[in-house]
Amino acid sequence: MVPHYGSSGVPSIIGDAVWKTKLTMDVFDDPDWDGFDGKGARANIVVNGDCDPGNAKFVYPIDTEDGPAGSVVICPKTSTQDYSSAASLDVVAHEWGHGVVFNSAGWEYITSTNAALQEGWADIIGHEVEWRKEGATSSDPETEDWNYDEDSGQEIRQENYDDGQYVSPDTNPYSYHASDTCPTSHGHYCGLRMAVAFWLAADGGTDDGLFENVNPVCRRDPDPALADCDLEVTALGTWAATRIFLRILMAVYADSSSDWHDFAEYAKQSAVDICGAPFPNCDNAADEQDTVQGAFTAIGYPGPTPLVRYCNPDCCPN
Ligand SMILES: [Zn+2]
How far apart are CA 58 and CA 67, in angstroms? Predict the structure, then answer.
């Protein structure tokens, strides 16, 4: 089945970009958050014939060469593509994800750490929207998965990569764990550890001896073994994980001073908000807190208080 995004030129790229934007905004809909900026801003899309073929971008106020601030730019297909993969759902959602990150935590895209946080969170949002909105079909490239930009047929980012290495390990090895160095200042590779935490929270992970579903850094052949590879993470499912992770941004748990060491705490608080229940039904979402704690521990960021679990007011143990 031919992909339906941008298969016959610019008009269908526009149609697809608008439709994928609508699907993305549906997923962002939250009692405390409206649109990509939290305030219901118009979602402007620019289809730009001059930008890098195959690319897409969110336009920050400091760089408005390709479009107005706060818009998403979709570039044309490459010369070897039959369609514009830049108008596929995970790419469009990733770019609007930058809008969510910019308008919530607001890390300035000026350091390599901030670039990794921006790209990691944008990748999570791309995955979240794809898993929420794309149905599993056997023949359509637009199927939910743990690859990013796989429809381009070119460079992809993958959370559950079989050997924990990028296809070009000398130049761009993926960074799945705090102990991995970031090979370049390019946030896409170091940010992968964030998406691994999300994948583990959604799908679960355990070392069953087959390395089926663990942090992919554990699939390498380290000696001595890397820490935490025997950690068990109980799956929450993609939608529960999505709501918990989005709330880290949308409830303003994360701000511009937050870094990798903070997210385990925020995720546990968010799990209580999303999955718990206040008095008199009292549910402190202990299982969900265990999962997100495990997911961040697995990537090497257990946070300052990995044994702490949060509780609803009036529902805390004595
Ligand atoms: Zn990005």
Answer: 9
Mean pLDDT computed over every residue of the chain: 87
Question: Which secondary-structure segment (H or E) carries 22?
Answer: helix 10-28
What CATH number has the domain bearing residue 289?
Answer: 1.10.390.10
Q: What is the pTM of this model?
A: 0.93
- 312 Cα to the center of ligand 1, angstroms: 35
CB 10: neighbour CB atoms within 10 A?
14
Q: Residue with structure tokens 């998406």?
A: 195
CA distance 243 to 238: 9
The residue-averaged pLDDT of 84-90 equals 90
Q: 318 C-alpha to center of ligand 1: Å?
A: 45
CA of 191 to the centre of ligand 1 (A): 10
Asked if 91 and 169 sit in the same domain, the reply is no
Q: How many domains does the chain have?
A: 2
Output the CA 122–ligand 1 centroid distance in Å: 6
